[in-house]
Write a structure and sequence with these properties.
1 helix; two-stranded antiparallel sheet; alpha+beta; 4 strands; globular; two-stranded parallel sheet; single chain
Length: 93
């Protein structure tokens, strides 16, 4: 596809809900983990994040892009992901 640069936006890599990775839980009300409190409504089953395994995948992607002479940047405002170089969101537009 010819993509030389990927810029991530909105990858907070941080969740208020804590617990065992991949454990299925049921939403009890407003969702504190996503951009909208209605992202998961009350009673929705979802799995707690596995941030460690996500980081392994992100590192593999970073290395593959770098090897191909490409790059992945992270423009997420306030995100906790440290795998990719950060770029100021406001400088992109």
């Amino acid at each position: 596809m010819g993509i030389e640069q990927v810029i991530l936006i909105g990858v907070d890599h941080n969740f208020t809900s804590k617990g065992e990775a991949n454990k299925t839980v049921i939403s009890q009300g407003d969702d504190p983990n996503h951009v909208s409190p209605n992202y998961f409504g009350k009673g929705i089953k979802w799995q707690l994040p596995d941030l460690d395994t996500s980081e392994i995948g992100y590192a593999l992607a970073r290395d593959a892009y770098k090897k191909a002479g490409r790059e992945v940047l992270d423009a997420t405002v306030g995100g906790k992901l440290t795998i990719f170089p950060k770029v100021d969101y406001n400088s992109l537009f």
